[in-house]
Amino acid sequence: MNYAIIAAGEGSRMSGGGEIRPKPLVELDGQPMISRLVGILDSLGAEKISVITNPAMPDVAATLRALKPAARLNVIEKSTRGSMESFHALAPDIDAGKPFCLLTADSVFRPEEFSQFIADFEADTDSDGYMAVTTYIADEKPLYVAATSEGDITGFLDNAVPGVRYVSGGIYMLRPAALEILADCAAAGVTRMRDFQRALIASGMHLKAWQFTKIIDVDHPSDLAEARRFTSGCDT
């Protein structure tokens, strides 16, 4: 499996809360979040891990290049205006013809659930993609995910509506055709990941919702405290 990680954000909300380190280097379980994430992916037998970092935060790239995973690790330093532009910048480094998983450096999840998420996708030959979802809502602007009782995704919504209980966890398993839609979105001036996800549905791609117990998007110091409780097993 190939993996792509977005670690290019400025982390302004964390720094505004007093954190002086770049967000990917904030420690969780005794190591930088980005190092922890690469370790999880490597332990699952990753073939290749591509990471985009912000050149304004050279310590992040340096930390990554000091790692020695079994997987091939490529680091791309580029300034971008948001997650979708970062994804588009990563796309040329994603091996063509193979499914891949896209994550953000600040998503915290249970490794055993993530492993099952990957295994279920690999065993599913009918779906074009799996989207990690959760009922845990802590994001300031969550993306709500509408799905059938069988888990087929029917829409991505900016606001909560009756009957929709999932929000996006920011982890995406996709087949290579998704990169063509990404290129079309970029050419059309689309900038938001959620609009790219809507374009996947509009294209007719079959996406499935896969529920995690909890996924924490670390944006604020309070999120980091929650993530530390979660990974320590104190928060179940």
Helices, strands, pairings?
Blueprint: E1 2-7, H1 12-16, E2 27-28, E3 31-32, H2 33-43, E4 48-53, H3 58-66, E5 72-77, H4 83-90, E6 100-104, E7 107-108, H5 111-123, E8 129-134, E9 144-147, E10 153-157, E11 166-174, H6 177-187, H7 193-202, E12 207-211, E13 216-217, H8 221-232
Parallel strand pairs: 1-4, 1-6, 4-5, 8-12
Antiparallel strand pairs: 2-3, 6-11, 7-13, 8-11, 9-10, 9-11
Radius of gyration: 17 Å
Span between termini: 29 Å
Instruction: Give a quick account of the main beta sheet: strands, pairing sense, barrel closure.
Output: 9 strands, mixed
Structural class: alpha/beta
- Poorly predicted regions are none
Assign an overall shape: globular
Would you tell me the overall average pLDDT? 93
Q: Roughly what fraction of the amino acids lie in strands?
A: 25-35%
Number of helices: 8
Element order: H for helix, E for strand? EHEEHEHEHEEHEEEEHHEEH
Q: What percentage of residues falls in helices of 4 or more residues? A: 25-40%
By DSSP, the count of extended strands is: 13
Compact description:
The protein is of the alpha/beta class and 236 residues long. The protein has eight helices and 13 strands.
Q: What would you note in describing this structure?
A:
The structure is a single chain. By secondary structure, the protein is an alpha/beta fold. 33% of the residues lie in helices and 25% in strands. The chain contains 8 helices and 13 strands. The protein has helices at residues 12-16, 33-43, 58-66, 83-90, 111-123, 177-187, 193-202, 221-232, and strands spanning 2-7, 27-28, 31-32, 48-53, 72-77, 100-104, 107-108, 129-134, 144-147, 153-157, 166-174, 207-211, 216-217. The strands form 3 sheets. Strands 1, 4, 5, 6, 8, 9, 10, 11 and 12 form a 9-stranded mixed β-sheet that branches. A two-stranded antiparallel ribbon has the order 2-3. It is globular, with a radius of gyration of 17 Å. The two termini are 29 Å apart. The mean pLDDT is 93.
